[in-house]
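Notes, p. 3: input format for complexes.
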Amino acid sequence: MARIAPSILSADFAWLARDIRSIEESGGDWVHFDVMDGIFVPNISIGIPVLQSVRKITRLPLDVHLMIDRPIRLADRFVKAGADWLCIHAESDTEENTLACLRRIRALGCKSALALKPGTPAQAAEPFLRDCDMILVMTVEPGFGGQEFMADMMPKLRQLRHMLDRENPGCLLEVDGGVNDRTQAICKAHGAQVLVAGSAFFRAPDRKAFVRLIREEP
Ligand code: DX5
Ligand code: ZN
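Output follows (218 residues plus D-xylitol-5-phosphate):
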């Protein structure tokens, strides 16, 4: 069964507690928390103080997606602030620092994840596969919610699943960007186990039904 992680980037930040309660009440599995620094991506969102506040109001696992430059500088603080999953981008630092950061995240007792932008091939994840608990395949350019799903990322998803089956079969595969009622099935059919959905979740006329749809077998 696939899991759904609604992204609060599409929530109303003035009513964040209400919107997180809605994720709980709809049966969402995790809360996806997008951090943007205006450097790694051309947008700024939320960070450590907001994560601390969110941690206090929900027991759902917090899936923190760092779209920031050189995340190794701040990984400890995000884990301390309450991340259950901490995801860093393969493009955001050197190979050496990325590896060190993934290992540091695990050493702190948090789950580690590595994200790949659409232009980054599956092979770029190769040096990190054993140090990850999840790989995130971006199906839009990171930076904004509400963009069009890139179906041409599906072969990359399948390729990563094959690589993981050899190297680290317990590692999860997540997709993020443009996931909606029309695009979710193809993601699951290509091996996605965790589906992030921002605008489609918050705009769904029936959020419970949307969650059920995502969790169904493809
Ligand atoms: C985009 C973020 C996504 C975003 C997804 O950079 O990483 O998590 O919230 O939004 P939708 O589901 O609307 O594409
Ligand atoms: Zn995200």
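The chain has eight helices and eight strands.
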